Amino acid sequence: MSGKPSKADKKIAYDAKLCQLLDEYSQILIVAADNVGSNQLQNIRTGLRGDSVVLMGKNTMMKRTIRVHSEKTGNNAFLNLIPLLQGNVGLIFTKGDLKEVSEEVAKYKVGAPARVGLVAPIDVACPTWQYWARPVPDLFLPEVLDLTEDDLVEKFATGVSMVTSLALAISYPTLAAAPHMFINAYKNVLAVAVATEYSFPQAEKVKEYLKDPSKFAVAVVPVAAADAGGAPAAATKEEEKKEEPAEESDDDMGFSLFD
């Protein structure tokens, strides 16, 4: 009859489990689990079941296993996790999208009642789960998980604009600056063609326009004003009637009938 596993057996099993997860997964979320109850933790495990594994444990055991694993495998990237294992924390190993996993964990965040000795992490509320993403080997803050594709496109466009401006300023050809350089070169050649007898097909129309702009004038046909119903307004009698010369009066002849 086998007895209850000893403390040493539990440590060996825990070390083996953590080493297996370090070998199998390349993305890790570190979660702060202060005031997280067992039922809440079980709900999180169930919600992440499929492509993610939640592992809790003492920080000293996790740090020791990570150091031993790094020495055996030569993978020092996991050593970046050690300074972050402070307080009541756990590890979520995942092969899924970090943003989706983070959002899934956030679904189980609940309010916790205030108790003596507890320090609220913020002024108003005390969230029970505070987490930040820690993929191996590059570390980044949780705000990265909130970035959308539109944010990334905007950042990329800003970077391209800066690269283009710099390339144009120092006359260094890049893919982003090439179209602008071609246009500027065309403008320079066109300016030379306009100022001299040299010409090329693309400059002929410009030179012809500068020589006689009237050829490119566009006739403007006046349109009669419309009335309230949308129909053209009828010409007034004053507009239709041509001015007729005034008849000369007797006064204009220098005498009147009564003289």
TrEMBL record:
Keywords: Ribonucleoprotein, Ribosomal protein. One of its GO terms (cellular component) is cytosolic large ribosomal subunit. Residues 229-259 are annotated as: Disordered. InterPro entries: Ribosomal_protein_uL10 (IPR050323), Ribosomal_uL10 (IPR001790), Ribosomal_uL10-like_sf (IPR043141). It holds the Pfam family Ribosomal_L10. GO terms for molecular function: large ribosomal subunit rRNA binding; structural constituent of ribosome. The keyword Ribosomal protein applies. GO terms for biological process: cytoplasmic translation; ribosomal large subunit assembly. Belongs to the universal ribosomal protein uL10 family. This is 60S acidic ribosomal protein P0. It comes from Hevea brasiliensis.
